[in-house]
Amino acid sequence: MARIPLVGPRDAGVLGRLAYAFARRRFGDVPEPFAALRHHPGLFWTAAVAESLTEKVATVLPSRLRELAVYRTATQVGCAWCVDFGEMLWIREGLDADHLRRAAADGAPDDPRFDADERAVLAYADAMTAQPPRVTDAQVADLDARLGHAGLVELTHLVAVENQRARENAALGLRAQGFADSCEVPVRP
């Protein structure tokens, strides 16, 4: 249960209700982080714009690597909401859910069921998420060779953003909302 009350549609204001309607149409429900952020309209809109723009421009990496890195980060931080939402996004991409769930396991960066790029991405997500971060020059050089400068920067940005999301959601007590196993969630064409 959330540690603060979530802002319902009645109290979200006209623009908030429009944003909630858009989210319901896109995801099948209003994501609870939206409803928590709605307490601060400026941060709500900042986050909405940033998330939309990031989704639009973060296309250098294959979706499986993007979603794998974000999911691994969410599992390492311990954000149940992010794990649930990440599974939904993975499934919408038409990817194997069991493959994704293996990314949550201890030792995933060494699991031979992941290809070399996936293992490198998982290890990097772990290194960035560790406290303090444990990213090495060798990791960066390896990922730069694999993904190129733009791919490395995209990966780094996505892991950093997921750390922010996951820590914010975990601190606010947001839990899995049922996105991954809800048949109500619309699938992208």
UniProtKB/TrEMBL annotation:
<dbReference type="InterPro" id="IPR029032">
    <property type="entry name" value="AhpD-like"/>
</dbReference>
<protein>
    <recommendedName>
        <fullName>Alkylhydroperoxidase family enzyme</fullName>
    </recommendedName>
</protein>
